[in-house]
Amino acid sequence: MSNRHLARAIALQSLYEWDFHEGKNDAIAIMERNLEEFASELDEKEFGLNLLKGVLANRTIIDDLITQFAPDWPLQKITTVDRNVLRMGCFELKFDASIPSKVAINEAIELAKTFGGESSGKFVNGVLGAIFRDQMANGIEKEADKQKPKEETETLIDTEGDALPQEPV
Fold first, then answer.
1. Were 18 and a residue from 27, 55, 107, 130 both cysteine, which residue would form a disulfide, CB within 3.0 to 4.6 Å?
2. Could you give the CA distance from residue 18 to residue 24 in angstroms, rounded to a whole number?
3. Contact 126, 112 (CB under 8 A)
4. Which alpha helices (DSSP H) does the chain contain, by range?
């Protein structure tokens, strides 16, 4: 497992706990505790913390995006895992210029498959794929999308909406 993938998994775990307690606990403290407990030697701690902070800082916009692109699923009806995987994926798609969009989608799909239910991967792929296609249709392309990803994997979305993982570039 790559360092960034592990950082994302710990961020997801932290967001899950924070969301489960309805935001009453300090998400940063939860993340710092989880990093220490599960990945004290992790090189990408700052990446994970920035991801968590970014999701929290932009949660209203992110939740609006999820609601817009998953109109049949009220936000509170989406499972806690899927909701927070989508939040992380939306943050990386919309706000993190350093992460290529297809990497953000692939990482979210992998987290959903690992921690979510049987159809979580397809659901996350469908929502994030729709957001990505909307951004492309509106001429929104991140600088990172113009370059090849370094250590992370790239995803292609096939005609049925399933992610097709590619070899690391």
1. 27
2. 7
3. no
4. 3-20, 27-38, 45-57, 59-69, 80-94, 101-115, 120-137
